Amino acid sequence: MIISASLVADVGLRFVPPARMAHRSWEAAFVFPRIGPFAPNMVYDNDRAYGDLPAMANLPSLRVYRREHFTTDAFGFRNTPSAQNRPIRMIVVGDSFAAGAGLSDSETLSAQLARMGQTGVYNGGATYSWSAAERLIRRLQFKGGLVIWQISERFDAPPEVGADVKSEDRVLSSLLPADSARYEMMRTAFRLARGFYKYSPLRIVMTRTFSVFEDGRWLPNVSAGNVVLAQVGNGRQMGFFSAEFEKFGKKRPSPPDYFVGLRAAVRATGNEMIVLMVPDKLNVYYPLVKGFAQPGEYSTLNVLAQNLRKNGVPALDLTPIFRQQAADALRNGQYLYWLDDTHWSPLGVRIAAGEILKFLRESGIQQRVDLTTAGHPNSPLLKPPPPAKTPSAMGVAPTL
Prior knowledge:
This protein is of the alpha/beta class. The chain has helices spanning about 1-15, 20, 25-30, 55, 95-100, 110-115, 130-140, 165-175, 180-200, 200-215, 240-245, 255-270, 280-285, 300-310, 320-330, 345-365, 365-370; strands spanning about 45-50, 65-70, 90-95, 120-125, 145-150, 225-230, 235-240, 270-280, 315. It has a domain at about 40-165 and about 225-370: SGNH hydrolase (Rossmann fold). The protein contains 17 helices and nine strands.
């Protein structure tokens, strides 16, 4: 009876809109992606959104509430209808920093780059592999522009281009041409089926119910170790992902091979590429954290940037400017990263966008690649394949 009741509850809850199950846009956005990383044509608005660290550590007291507006286009990438009014001259790809986790639409890197650079920028964030980026470039008919490939310090690069392709994409590519309509249809069907299998509203409800009691008083808080709370120079408490302390200052492999191959692949499409390196929150704030024993100075991103430049790959490491700006902003009660999140704030994004435009001017890339919208026809978006007929409330499991 318990098993039967659980099955009925799990199936019934699948008809509840996923946005009702999510506390943050990032959780709701991953419901049933078809082509891009997010659900297509989604609009999510929440006046009481908060960062990822309170969820990681099960610490509601750490939440800093703010408004968050999240919009996706027909392909499941984070772009608003107004963002497509300008001809696309840049594409931003990468992880959650590129996509804009914890930010509203107007605060993302692509939105601020478009506004400051007066040009069209497409947000291809949450795109991790070259195969996915190549599909996006082909779909946008993008040529003669710039691809900004964002990487985070927390992740190590794959050994070579192609090593980061998902197993299902690898199997499909061996059976069907990657640029065929049948390939896209099979890939979409597989992603929908995987979402149906992984998404369990009942598990989400039960997990959150247990987290209420696992608060350190009724039951031990087994998640508390995922986050380190520290006091910064102005006396405010800031949260950090505990894994950042484990990796900080340690030497990690920084071979340039992956990005050398990546740049060659991008240039083969008729575009130019730069690598944008985003440091961990701790790497930026460690000089400002009270009582933190600073280890020997070593920066994986700095070493990687040097290796890339030696191999002719344009690379921008944001670590030095972020450390400087973080100290200046702290005196005014401002932060480059959210207090309750591992991701950057709108101020951090604005600084990054300014540094990118400065880098493009000083490196000569702006002269080699026409990044203005004048005289360029708008890159038309191809019509996406029709979605499979499935219950709209189903999707992949949100991050709890």
